[in-house]
Every structure is written in C-alpha cells, then in structure tokens.
C-alpha cells in the first residue's frame, strides 16, 4: 500500500464525508458498505475511485444506465471523462475535473530557504502569473500559505493548503514564471506539506490527469497516487428570447 493502513482509513473516511456518503462507504472490510457508494444528485456526475473502491454521484438516468452490465462492459472505466460523456448521450455536460488523487503521510526534507508568511507575498506571486494559473491554484482558499524567497529575497513560489473534512490538507502551488523549472515550487510545497503533517493533517494533491509538471512535483514530494476524481457538470440551457 502506498500509505500506512491507518492513513488509508482516514482518507477513506474523509472522502466519504466529503461526498456526503456514510462513513464506512469506502471501507472494503465492512459488509455491504459498497451499496452506499452510489448517490443520486442532480445536474452533475462525480466519480471518485479510492484504493480500488468507486463512488458514483449522478442523476437517476445515469445510475440506470450503468446498472446494465452490458453497458458497463462496453463503456469502459467511469473515471475517464470521454466515457462519461458517451453515457450522457445528447445531454449537455462539460468536464470540470479530471484528476489523479495523490497523498502521503511522510515528511520531506526541509528546503532551507527563506519563507514568508505574509499574504502580500502571495499577492506578489499571483501578480506575475497568468489568470488561469491563479484560478487553478486558488491560493485564496488556502487556510495556510507559504512563500519561498529567492536569493534576492523576492517571492519565487507560493504554496498552501486548505482542510478537507477536517482530516486532509489539499495542497496547491503557484510558481512565478521567471522561477519555473528551477525547483522553487517544490521548495514552497515542501514547507506546506510538512506544516500540514505537523498539524495532524494528511497532505493530498489532486493533480490534473496527464500533467507531467504536476506529476513530477508530486513525485518529488513523495505523493503517491491513491485514486481518481472525475466530475462533469450539466451545461445550463439558455432559453430563446
């Protein structure tokens, strides 16, 4: 197993609560728990695979479709957005998340660089980054942030985490364009990761599937893949005027 058994149990519990499922839904050791891995929700399809267990939150029509064994065999893995879109038929859906869930319960080496806790330093990093990068990192949602300073004491990269279900620390990282590919993101993220562990939280990173940069960062931080998170949202139809 990629993390300690106790850590895996906490991850299962945290995700069950995040999704609004019963606490034991992801626990394969509990008889009948798997029946709680399906939930009816409107306007979205959410598939979370965790340690081999799969939860599906979706409209009634989607649950009816995947209840057919032949359909399941033909469509392929539900964690693949293309397969979810195929099952949606003519319904208008858009891919919101296609992510690999990674986590660790181990500390990483301290980067030994100056760290600023000043929110203004986070703003300095965001100021020089593209809007899409800022939106994806969403450091404004972090409860704790850390900014690595370069040799000139200028903000090079920012990292932070926000709590999930009271047990997990969802990491996010943003590196100034002039400091990318030089390890600054890893330095800032290392501080955030260790701080989360100090606070009794399990560091987690949901990285975009297929992102080589995010995969490399996760590898350097010791984050191990433990599942997938895929979500589609219904596209609201605009009525004609």
Features:
Aminopeptidase; alpha+beta; Acyl_CoA_acyltransferase
Structural account:
- The structure is a single chain.
- This protein is an alpha+beta fold and 241 residues long.
- Helix content is 32%, strand content 29%.
- It is built from eight helices and ten strands.
- A ten-stranded mixed sheet has the order 1-3-2-10-4-9-8-7-6-5, with helices on both faces.
- Helix 7 links the parallel strand 8 and strand 9 (202-208).
- It is globular, with a radius of gyration of 20 Å.
- 35% of the residues are buried.
- InterPro entries: Acyl_CoA_acyltransferase.
- It comes from Naumannella halotolerans.
- This is N-acetyltransferase domain-containing protein.
Q: What's the quick description here?
A:
This protein is α+β, with helices and mostly antiparallel strands.
Q: Mind sketching the topology for me?
A:
Blueprint: H1 5-18, E1 38-40, E2 44-50, E3 53-58, H2 60-66, H3 69-75, H4 81-88, E4 93-103, E5 115-116, H5 119-127, H6 131-137, E6 144-149, E7 155-164, E8 168-175, H7 184-198, E9 202-208, H8 212-220, E10 224-234
Parallel strand pairs: 1-3, 8-9
Antiparallel strand pairs: 2-3, 2-10, 4-9, 4-10, 5-6, 6-7, 7-8
Main sheet overview = 10 strands, mixed
Total number of strands: 10
CATH superfamily of the largest domain: Gcn5-related N-acetyltransferase (GNAT)
CATH architecture of the largest domain: 3-Layer(aba) Sandwich
Spans of at least 5 consecutive residues whose pLDDT stays below 50 are: none
Strand content: 25-35%
In CATH, what is the class of the largest domain? Answer: Alpha Beta
Number of DSSP helices? 8
General form: globular
Q: In terms of structural class, how would the helical and strand content be classed?
A: alpha+beta
Enter the CATH topology name of the largest domain. Aminopeptidase
Number of domains: 2
Question: Numbering strands along the chain, what is their spatial order in the largest sheet?
Answer: 1-3-2-10-4-9-8-7-6-5
The gyration radius over C-alpha positions equals 20 Å
The secondary-structure element order is HEEEHHHEEHHEEEHEHE
């Amino acid at each position: 197993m990629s993390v300690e058994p106790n850590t895996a149990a906490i991850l299962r519990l945290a995700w069950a609560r995040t999704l609004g499922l019963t606490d034991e839904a992801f626990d394969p050791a509990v008889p009948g728990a798997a029946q709680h891995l399906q939930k009816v929700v409107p306007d979205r399809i959410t598939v979370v695979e965790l340690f081999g267990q799969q939860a599906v939150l979706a409209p009634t029509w989607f649950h009816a479709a995947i209840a057919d064994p032949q359909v399941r065999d033909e469509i392929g893995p539900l964690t693949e957005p293309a397969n979810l879109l195929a099952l949606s038929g003519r319904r208008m859906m858009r891919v919101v998340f296609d992510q690999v869930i990674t986590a660790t319960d181990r500390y990483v080496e301290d980067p030994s660089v100056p760290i600023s806790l000043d929110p203004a330093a986070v703003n300095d990093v965001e100021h020089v980054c593209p809007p899409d990068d800022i939106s994806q990192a969403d450091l404004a949602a972090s409860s704790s942030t850390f900014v690595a300073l370069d040799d000139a004491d200028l903000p090079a990269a920012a990292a932070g985490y926000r709590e999930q279900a009271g047990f997990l620390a969802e990491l996010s990282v943003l590196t100034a364009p002039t400091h990318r590919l030089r390890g600054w993101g890893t330095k800032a993220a290392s501080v955030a990761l260790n701080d989360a562990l100090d606070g009794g939280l399990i560091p987690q990173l949901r990285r975009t599937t297929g992102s080589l940069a995010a995969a490399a960062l996760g590898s350097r931080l010791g984050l191990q893949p433990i599942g997938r998170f895929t979500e589609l949202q219904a596209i609201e139809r605009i009525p004609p005027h």
